[in-house]
What we know:
Elements: E1 14-18, E2 30-34, E3 39-44, E4 50-57, E5 64-66, H1 79-85, H2 87-104
Amino acid sequence: xxxxxxxxxxxxxxxxxxxxxxxxxxxxxxxxxxxxxxxxxxxxxxxxxxxxxxxxxxxxxxxxxxxxxxxxxxxxxxxxxxxxxxxxxxxxxxxxxxxxxxxxxxxxxxxxx
Length: 113
């Protein structure tokens, strides 16, 4: 069988997650995320190895949030690809991280933002 004209598969995948489910601690905000918010990255796991996890950024504090894999969808970009494809969202995340750090009285080098 061969697809001559592909159909539309615009699934409105959304999920609620809580910021703070990743190593950074987070702010505890409840977020509604969509497929375009997600990226994959290798992160350390309990046994010292690394595993590929699905993450998103919290727009409230800039932390990365662990999300469930929306299986059945196209391949997710890695973190660098996501940052390249979403420059406006990335700037909002960086600004949120700056504001969150200032509220906590944390001074960091500009390179982390």
